[in-house]
């Protein structure tokens, strides 16, 4: 672990809602919900009433009757993200983007020319506000884990520095949900054993945690509870998968509707793959149900591909297999990702060669969408439908 708290976790505050409030002065200071069937983002004015993501819009409006609902504008969020990341890269060359609205920055080697990490973080927040008009919270610590926790505790629009020697005093009083990997299931198991804070976890032996949660989870939480996180800020690494997902809302959805949404997502994903020059071999279907539980189903192809038809056929087969489960539990989100991406964009063809007409059609459609916009060509089944991405995705 470094002697200096030099890792910054910079996280935009209620990103989608903040962009809407920035662009429409009439929304400033008012409760704003971004979404359609579900809340994709809520302003802090709405969060004060108990609104959370991914809550259904009807439930959110019941909690906050005066809220203003606006549809998502993904192009505006992508443009804002690029502007913010320009500020990050102007601050330090060591930037690791982890989503559309957050990143880790390493500033330990900049003290002689830019000042202390705290001074750099202060200047970063001011520059983001000045150049993009958006609020951002920054956490500063010696580890990535603790920097991220600090930014979460410091929200909204704050700066929280965890000094060396004070890490455990800061960390241990926090609730167990602040530990990476502690979701509702793990939280429930820990609280059943009267384990409510990070300090309680730290006082347990690793063997006890392993017996309670399993080997991987037990060792992971034991390390984090003692602020053991050797990971450094990574620069220039290529993502292992490309995906997209859409919230569907809390109501019954016929197969034709879910299938049409899946097809539109596959169109988006394979277009991004071709643009990045990356072929993939593993197709993963992601589903979220009405009780907020999730499942994934995946299938690997014999060879890497960027073809829309091949990816869609595979994803559709996974959807058909999972449909009985969907009918039983209700679906609120569908997503698709292609993983096992190649590193150089090369695609190894096998005999018989792929149908050249598929590649030609994909290329032609990409050219039309690049020139006239992504909505200029769409599937008939997608007419009148709008994709609602529910999790920010870092732009390529």
UniProtKB/TrEMBL annotation:
Keywords: Cytoplasm, DNA damage, DNA repair, DNA replication, DNA-binding, DNA-directed DNA polymerase, Magnesium, Metal-binding, Mutator protein, Nucleotidyltransferase, Transferase. Its cofactor is Mg(2+). It catalyses: DNA(n) + a 2'-deoxyribonucleoside 5'-triphosphate = DNA(n+1) + diphosphate. Mg(2+) binds at residues 11, 101. Residues 7-183 form the UmuC domain. The record marks 16 as: Substrate discrimination. GO terms for cellular component: cytosol. The keyword DNA-binding applies. Its EC number is 2.7.7.7. Pfam families: IMS, IMS_C, IMS_HHH. It comes from the Bacteria. GO terms for molecular function: damaged DNA binding; DNA-directed DNA polymerase activity; magnesium ion binding. GO terms for biological process: DNA repair; DNA-templated DNA replication; error-prone translesion synthesis; SOS response. It is found in: Cytoplasm. Transmembrane segments: none annotated. The active site is at 102. SUPFAM superfamilies: DNA/RNA polymerases (SSF56672), Lesion bypass DNA polymerase (Y-family), little finger domain (SSF100879). Poorly processive, error-prone DNA polymerase involved in untargeted mutagenesis. Copies undamaged DNA at stalled replication forks, which arise in vivo from mismatched or misaligned primer ends. These misaligned primers can be extended by PolIV. Exhibits no 3'-5' exonuclease (proofreading) activity. May be involved in translesional synthesis, in conjunction with the beta clamp from PolIII. HAMAP family: DNApol_IV. Belongs to the DNA polymerase type-Y family. Monomer. PANTHER family: DNA POLYMERASE KAPPA (PTHR11076:SF33), DNA REPAIR POLYMERASE UMUC / TRANSFERASE FAMILY MEMBER (PTHR11076). This is DNA polymerase IV. The gene is dinB_2.
């Amino acid at each position: 672990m470094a002697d200096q708290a030099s890792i910054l976790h910079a996280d935009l505050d209620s990103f989608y809602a903040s962009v809407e409030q920035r662009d429409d002065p009439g929304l400033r200071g008012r409760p704003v919900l971004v979404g359609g069937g579900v809340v994709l983002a809520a302003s802090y004015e709405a969060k004060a009433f108990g609104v959370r993501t991914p809550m259904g819009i009807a439930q959110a409006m019941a909690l906050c009757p005066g809220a203003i609902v606006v549809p998502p504008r993904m192009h505006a969020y992508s443009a804002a993200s690029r502007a913010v990341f320009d500020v990050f890269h102007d601050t330090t060359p060591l930037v690791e983007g982890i989503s559309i609205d957050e990143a880790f920055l390493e500033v330990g080697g900049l003290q002689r020319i830019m000042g202390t990490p705290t001074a750099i973080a202060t200047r970063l927040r001011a520059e983001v506000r000045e150049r993009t008009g958006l609020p951002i919270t920054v956490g500063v610590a010696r580890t990535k884990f603790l920097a991220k926790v600090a930014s979460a505790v410091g929200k909204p629009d704050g700066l929280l520095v965890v000094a060396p020697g004070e890490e455990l005093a800061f960390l241990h009083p926090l609730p167990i949900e602040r530990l990476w990997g502690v979701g509702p299931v793990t939280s429930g198991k820990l609280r059943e054993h009267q384990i409510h804070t990070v300090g309680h976890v730290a006082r347990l032996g690793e063997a006890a945690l392993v017996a309670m949660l399993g080997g991987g989870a037990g060792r992971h939480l034991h390390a984090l509870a003692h602020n053991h996180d050797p990971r450094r800020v990574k620069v220039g690494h290529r993502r292992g998968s490309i995906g997209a997902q859409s919230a569907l809302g809390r109501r019954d959805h016929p197969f034709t509707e879910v299938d049409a949404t899946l097809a539109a997502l596959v169109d988006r994903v394979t277009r991004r793959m071709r643009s990045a020059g990356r072929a993939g071999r593993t197709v993963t279907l992601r589903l979220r149900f009405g009780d907020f539980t999730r499942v994934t189903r995946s299938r690997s192809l014999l060879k890497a591909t960027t073809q829309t038809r091949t990816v869609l056929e595979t994803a559709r087969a996974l959807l058909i297999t999972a449909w009985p489960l969907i009918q039983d539990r209700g679906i609120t989100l569908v997503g698709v990702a292609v993983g096992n991406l190649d590193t150089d964009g090369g695609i190894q063809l096998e005999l018989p060669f792929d149908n050249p007409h598929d590649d030609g059609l994909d290329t032609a459609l990409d050219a039309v969408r690049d020139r006239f916009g992504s909505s200029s060509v769409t599937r008939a089944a997608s007419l009148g439908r709008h994709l609602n991405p529910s999790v920010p995705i870092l732009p390529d």
